[in-house]
Amino acid sequence: MRLSTILSEVARNLATGTTRAVGLALALGVAAGALAALDASTIVGMEHDAARYRSAAADVRTVSAPGLVDPQACDALGGSTSVQDAGALVPTTPVVPSATPASPLQSFAVTPSLAGVLAVRSPLPEGVWMSDQLAERLGLARGATLETDDRPLVLAGTFAWPDDGRDGRLGFAVLRPTVTNARFEECWAAAWPTTPAVEDLLRGVVDVQPQSTEAITVGQVNRSLGAAYDAHATYVARPTRYTVAACAVLGLVLGYASVRRRRLEHAGALHAGQSRSAQLATSSLETVVWAAVGTAVSVVGLRVVVARVGAMDPTAVFDVVVRGPVLGALCAVVGATVAACLVREQHLFRYFKDR
Fold this sequence. Notes:
Elements: H1 3-16, H2 21-55, E1 60-69, H3 71-76, E2 85-95, E3 105-110, H4 114-118, E4 128-131, H5 132-138, E5 145-146, E6 153-159, E7 173-177, E8 184-190, H6 197-203, E9 217-220, H7 231-236, H8 243-260, H9 263-271, H10 276-308, H11 314-321, H12 323-342, H13 348-354
Parallel strand pairs: 3-7, 4-6
Antiparallel strand pairs: 1-8, 1-9, 2-3, 2-8, 5-6
Helix pairs in contact: 1-10, 2-8, 2-10, 2-11, 2-12, 8-12, 9-13, 10-11, 10-12
């Protein structure tokens, strides 16, 4: 049978509704799209969980060793493969505001690189940092001056430090950026993804002295959300990871059923002289058409879903979940081909009786 004849028959079957292409396309598109949308929703939820973990400073690991932390070694951790930002700090003499001498503020000397860990917003070259709530309580804005019993302090920058389980000391403390070779008390490192190797790196910034009796303590700025968050393991173990396989099974079933329900027609065509290859080509092309339309329905729906569920990286999420509908379409063609291969001319009368 010539290609033009095959294409003509395919077009005729589609136009007359013999293939029930519209129903099959909608079934595949809606079902596969719903499965993929469920997976997308789960992945986006995991994205938000990870973002919440980081925004709460739960990804910031600390090492405490009074008088033993090398500030230069601590700063050097920032920008490595495991650590994005790092900085050191040490308590200093409290700051006594002139307006409230009875309420001194805790003070820390910090390395300038701690600004990255705390996400200090556009700090000025000179001055001190404090949390948003402390600046609001003192009635200060960036660039304003805090009068103290020692000397005026310029507010160089502020950072968010809500009461969400994180180390509360910095919520009402004045941070003084300092460049010095003197030993500090703590080193903080923002590390994502969280790995045990970060703790080993933090221990490496401690200048251990043989005669020292100070304990070295590795901790976490915010433990309320768990000691660790393995984003990769959570993604791999997500319950909706089987939606791709479900789409494949769905495609196989629909493709197989679309041909099997017409087995009497196909057996009759073979009996009338149609070649097996022509029949396979016809069935496959018919399936390709409705499967492609169904996939297009899924893709359009997924674009809308991914855009509306607040994905942080919509392209990456879409690229992951679209595999289900695409695989479903491919499996539909496979299922139809298998069903067509199983049609036997000698079973024509049995098909007639079972119709």
